[in-house]
Amino acid sequence: MKLLKKVFKRKTTWFVFLIVIAFIYLNNSSLLAQKRESQPFLLAHRGVAQTFTMKGIQNDTCTAERIYKPEHNFLENTIPSMDAAFKDGADMVELDVHITKDNQFAVFHDWTVDCRTNGKGVTRDYTMAELKKLDIGYGYTADGGKTYPFRGKGINLMPSLNEVMEHFPHQAFLIHVKSNDPKEGRQLAKYLSQFSKKRLKNITVYGGDEPIDSLKKEMPNLKVMSKATMKDCLIPYIATGWTGYVPKACENTELHIPEKIGPFLWGWPSRFLNRMDDVDTRTIIVGGNGSEFSTGFDSIQDLKRLPDGYSGGIWTNRIDKIGDYYKTNEE
Length: 331
Known about the structure:
Mean pLDDT: 92
Number of strands: 9
Structural class: alpha/beta
Low-confidence stretches: none
Largest sheet: 9 strands, mixed
Strand content: 5-15%
Shape: globular
Number of helices: 11
């Protein structure tokens, strides 16, 4: 009798175990997910920009000194480059901002102006008018300094954030706060608060934990992202996502998921994307494992690494190439 009970108990345990495994599979398999019909959402990093080798890059590397041979005449973070990106098929353009000496927001990548321009010093020590006088194409070279193809062509090209917003009144932007100053988050919140709810639906802000936290306190309905918001969402999701539960911290935010991390998320890709869509969160896939600098999907060969039928967001440094690919496939 005892032996019979042991056998029965063991069979029951295995049966329950198999039921749980079946539930997890059925609840997270993308094969059984609701079909996603849309094309991927294309995020153009810095607009149409000059790209560069990522080998050995560090935080203080001057990337303008290591660009590839130019294939176009656009410079990053400028209105012409953003205009070209949208025409090439970008759904959203990422841009970088720094506060200026006269409390405007300059659209420029670097903490200092030394690398790209003919100026010296910290970007925030200049007024917006002074920054416009700099030649932002001055430091670009593809041959180790033998030639500088963009010198003299970048004067008055650095825009303010206000100029960008006025030039593109309806387009979507991902604004990158480059400092980790909480005051800058509050200043950006004050600036963005003048826009309508409809306009702000197309604006997302990301950056350091402190400025994003201070901005979010001022504008709780604005979509934001930082390392802290990513952790607040994904750590509990990894623990409970197998049930289909989406933590509240995942609502109304943006997630940048490295391609090598994606497969470890419950329901990746389609179930995960559907769950995030349901809580108004945008998912962008980026290249590598998250340790690289701004690695994206920049060629047709890169796109082949995407999961079959992937229709979430894609981070790209070459919207001029990737946009054409999706335009052709759409037709």
